[in-house]
Amino acid sequence: MAVQNQPDNYNTLSPLSFRLVIDQFPLLTFWCQSANIPGITVAESTSPNPLRDIPMMGDKVEYETLDVTMIVDEDLANYREILGWIRGQSPDQKQTDHKEYLEQNPRRRQLPFSSTYERYLSDAVLHITTNSKGSNKTVTFKDIFPVSLGALAFDSTAELTPITTDISFQIRDYIIDG
């Protein structure tokens, strides 16, 4: 008797075959070294019972962060773009930082009905390619914004490797197509 339900595709997913494109941050596409599809969890709830609380399905979906590692260019252009994005969305910065950031970044959403908050959101697409570099799947991340930008470490005793930094983005949702 033959085994049923065999996979149609025996190829494994390659960790090298991807390209990340963030609408509001085009410099990242070339310099991106790693990216992830965030994990997702649903917090469980319980139903009280005199003998034992009964676990129940939760009703809140929570996403982990979209974590990206990028090489920093020698002009710090890509680093400064994320730095400006974070500083611009921070209410602790003086008001001129908000205006200056939006004026210097024309790619930001400038919809007539958008709030200041929405101008700091962006969509992103992770293009996953096959082992032969053809397009396979796309993961669309909705309404992302940076929540952390890693330090830059200078070390004159280290081997000559490019400096990288880590960026974490919070996301509203993601969809896998293809």
Describe the secondary-structure layout:
Elements: E1 18-22, H1 27-31, E2 32-35, E3 40-42, E4 45-47, E5 54-56, E6 61-63, E7 66-71, H2 77-89, H3 95-104, E8 122-129, E9 135-149, E10 164-170, E11 173-177
Antiparallel strand pairs: 1-8, 2-7, 3-6, 4-5, 7-10, 8-9, 9-10, 9-11
Helix pairs in contact: 2-3
Keywords for this entry:
alpha+beta; 178 residues; seven-stranded antiparallel β-sheet
Describe this protein's structure.
It is a single chain. With 178 residues, the protein is an alpha+beta fold. The chain contains three helices and eleven strands. It has helices at 27-31, 77-89, 95-104, and strands spanning 18-22, 32-35, 40-42, 45-47, 54-56, 61-63, 66-71, 122-129, 135-149, 164-170, 173-177. The strands form three sheets. Strands 1, 2, 7, 8, 9, 10 and 11 form a seven-stranded antiparallel β-sheet that branches. The protein has a two-stranded antiparallel sheet with strand order 3-6. Strands 4-5 form a two-stranded antiparallel ribbon.
